[in-house]
Amino acid sequence: MKKRVIAAAVLLLLLAPTLSFAGSGYEGGFYTNNEDDTFRLTTSGRVQPQLFYEKEKQGPAIFSFAMRRAEVSFNATVHEKGHLGLTLKHSQFSPGGTGTFATVNVTGAYASIDVIPELTITAGMVGLPLSFINEVSSKWLLVTESPIVVSEDDVSFPLTPLRSSFGTPDGLGINLSGGYWKWFYSLSVVGANESNYEINKDSKRMSVGFWTGFNILDPVPGKLTDFDCSDTPKFMVSVGSDYQPKRYQYDPSNPNANPVEIGYIWTSSLGTAVRWAGLSFTAEGFYKRTKINNPGYLAGSGAAWIRPMLTEMGYYAAAGYYIIPKKF
Fold first, then answer.
1. Which residues contact 126 (CB under 8 A, 6 or more apart)?
2. Are the C-beta atoms of residues 244 and 192 closer than 8 Å to each other?
3. How many Å apart are CA 156 and CA 149, to the nearest integer?
């Protein structure tokens, strides 16, 4: 399925309307455009190597190089208001993981239109918004890893069924985003199966999520760094919430076992960010409630802690400063 999606998506962009390309250059990537610049195709990419040290309580220490991420993106703009795009990405999910370049996925495939300056409608692999960190591209992290609170997957004992601790789920759907003055927002509705590659064919349920905030001072860009070495201070606060409806979690080691029936998952966030003169500070807190209708196979696993309602809280804080400024 993924191979067909990759082939179709790449073909769609490469076989864009047969235009006589009159210009080319570099602006956030290499681009070509037609004579009146009503169509522009931009190609960009990056590679993120990583030198890491990893030590867990069980197992030997690891000190090695890894290829954390490699990707190539295609983005097209039509008459300034229409946009198409997709990314082919390899991601080695953890330094000690087994990711290889044989694993390449389509991510971020979308089509959007700028209806008015305050509203953009996007369809495709939109996922659910929730927090600032989930909106930051991996190329603008302080280091090559996201905070563990949004990337850790509790799989040995599923305290957090079905998803990473406070990460956001994928999903095919529709997103509305924009802003007015200092206020900004993002709202998504996706299929409850939360897959980028399969339609929601087993139920009519939908997952919904929003993220909104206010720039108290100048707007904070979607980066964990202040690479631009801001001349004026930037400060914002934000809140977000996701609701995921009924679902089932199956035992990966025994698919025939009675599944866990989850009534719903509700996750919320509260965050703030500051950028000024090369200094960056970001902090967010998370709160999640998971309703367990039936513990299923977990009931016989000796997990006496299973309760009808699981409550979890977490947070992260990230700070950085450019010792050698961009501007002298």
1. 110, 171, 172, 173, 174, 175, 188, 190
2. yes
3. 16
Q: What is the pTM of this model?
A: 0.84
Q: Which of 128-137, 201-210, 288-297 has the highest mean pLDDT?
A: 128-137
For the chain, list the strands marked E by DSSP.
21-26, 30-34, 39-54, 62-78, 82-91, 105-116, 119-125, 172-180, 183-191, 206-215, 234-244, 247-249, 260-276, 279-294, 309-321
Question: Under 8 Å CB-to-CB from 124, ≥6 apart: which residues?
Answer: 108, 109, 110, 111, 172
What integer pLDDT is reported at residue 304 of this predicted model?
Answer: 47
Instruction: Report the pLDDT value the prediction gives residue 160, as an integer from 0 to 100.
Output: 43
Domain ranges of the chain: 1-116, 127-328
Residues shown for the chain: 328
Give the per-residue pLDDT at 152: 63
- Measured distance CA(269)–CA(259) in Å, rounded: 29
User: What is the CB neighbour count within 10 angstroms for residue 19?
Assistant: 14
Q: Are strands 260-276 and 247-249 parallel, antiparallel or unpaired?
A: antiparallel
Cα 196 from chain centre: 12
Kindly state the average pLDDT of the residues 111-124.
97
Phi, psi of 13 (to 5 degrees): -75, -40
Q: Are 291 and 263 in contact (CB under 8 A)?
A: yes
Residue 153 has pLDDT above 60, yes or no: no
Instruction: Determine how β-strand 183-191 pairs with β-strand 172-180.
Output: antiparallel
Q: Which amino acid is at 208?
A: V
